Amino acid sequence: MKYKKILVCDDDQGILEMLELLLEDDGYEVVLEPNSVNALKTIEREAPDLILLDIWMPMISGDQILRSLRDNRKTSSTPVLMYSASTDGKSIAESCGADSYISKPFDLTVLLDKIEELLQA
Description:
Layout: E1 5-9, H1 13-25, E2 29-33, H2 39-46, E3 50-54, H3 62-71, E4 80-84, H4 89-95, E5 100-103, H5 108-120
């Protein structure tokens, strides 16, 4: 069985570690990218099956990263689940083409369900 690869891009080390534990425990291969500046290169190199992307990051925000992904033929169809603690996170995620959105702090069961849905779509 091929394990699905999920790339998590977030500048918060605590969230990266928590998601890594949660996702590996659920049987996923996990790639972490704490630096939004490197995100596009890492995504192209790793070719993940799904991307978890924080909206608010220093330097390059999640919505800028997602717009670039959608403009790139190689990554345009990769499912992206965005998340944020911001009240307008959902509208930002929708406006830049996210496949799904979850607000922080997230319910881990809901998060895993959304991941499963996106990977099966």
